[in-house]
Amino acid sequence: MKISDIVALGLWPQSKKTTNQKGISELEELGYNLFYIGKNADLYTCPGDEQKVLLVRSDRCSVFDIPLNLEIEGKGVSQTTISNSGAEFAREAGIRTAILSETIDLSLSVAPRCQLMELCKPLEAEIDGEVVQFEFIFRNYLTGSLFDAIQNGNDPYGLDLPTDLKQWHKFETPIFTPTTKGIKDEPLNSAKVREVFPEIITSMEKLFKDFTKYAEDNGIVVVDTKFEIFIDANGEWVLGDEVLTPESSRFIAKEDFDAQNYISMDKQILRDFGKANNWKEKSKDLKAGEKLEVEVPQSIKDTILDGYNTIHKRLSK
């Protein structure tokens, strides 16, 4: 299958650059052809099936949407395992995901990094006169950018939250804080987005609540989660490829949380290191296709991997 065939299906945004580079030889020899290189994962066409793509997770890392020359050995395999588990949790809840339950040949050395996926396009709609793509975010606790906003008297999602709430306040029921998808992640009015997608939001809200309880019963506190929704070839919505994973959620070990040691088992440690070393400022000089040269201590890499392994052990179904 040619890249042009995928674009012709109308399920691949023309704004996303494809590649003619050769991919992993083990896959290319079987007819899987690399067509997109992402910051952390690559996509291949599938031989004989234009409606599927093969996602191959690398050990590459990125933060703040900045491509880095950083790899953490084993990260891609851990992410794939956790992602498969999250997708299974969603499927058992009756929600269809872009991640398919079928697999490639498990004897392939690259198989632990691979997920077969349905070819879909991002959900779009017009909000306040502008067509946008979405990130549906649910929060159990008040922290991060939202805490900063209400401290400054701002109400970015139209939620009318009290201004005297303390950091790490737990909401009685999760709050919905949607944003646009992209580098800016601009806040959207929560009520307006609910009006546009009532069925999807209700389904995602229930999934988040159910998963929060399941995680807590297994020693993980879920601070918040981001869901991305896609549209398949039949116009039906499906949940995207990052389902209840460290890439889309903030997880804290319950024993740490109870001790008020709010260490998030995701890329937060890498983000904090990047902030301290001005990666955002340094990345402004990057040209298209370039990666930011960074040096990260092995201790940080090990901490990130340890977090992924803990999540896998506690949350795998």
- Summarize the amount of helix as a percent range: 25-40%
The shape, in one word, is globular
Biggest sheet record: 6 strands, antiparallel
Per DSSP, the total helix count is 10
Task: Provide a brief overview of the structure.
By secondary structure, this protein is of the alpha+beta class. Helix content is 32%, strand content 26%.
Explain how this protein is built:
With 317 residues, the protein is of the alpha+beta class. The protein has helices spanning 3-8, 25-28, 75-92, 144-151, 190-196, 198-217, 254-258, 268-276, 279-283, 298-315, and strands at residues 33-37, 41-46, 49-57, 60-63, 66-71, 114-118, 121-122, 124-127, 130-141, 170-176, 179-180, 220-227, 229-231, 237-239, 249-253. Strands 8, 9, 10, 11, 12 and 15 form a 6-stranded antiparallel beta sheet that branches. Strands 1-2-3-6 form a 4-stranded antiparallel beta sheet. The longest helix has 20 residues, at 198-217. The model has no long low-confidence stretch (mean pLDDT 90).
Secondary structure elements and their pairing?
Layout: H1 3-8, H2 25-28, E1 33-37, E2 41-46, E3 49-57, E4 60-63, E5 66-71, H3 75-92, E6 114-118, E7 121-122, E8 124-127, E9 130-141, H4 144-151, E10 170-176, E11 179-180, H5 190-196, H6 198-217, E12 220-227, E13 229-231, E14 237-239, E15 249-253, H7 254-258, H8 268-276, H9 279-283, H10 298-315
Antiparallel strand pairs: 1-2, 2-3, 3-6, 4-5, 7-13, 8-9, 9-10, 9-11, 9-12, 12-15, 13-14
Helix pairs in contact: 3-10
From the structure above, extract its key features.
single chain, 317 residues, alpha+beta, six-stranded antiparallel beta sheet, four-stranded antiparallel beta sheet, 10 helices, 15 strands, 26% strand
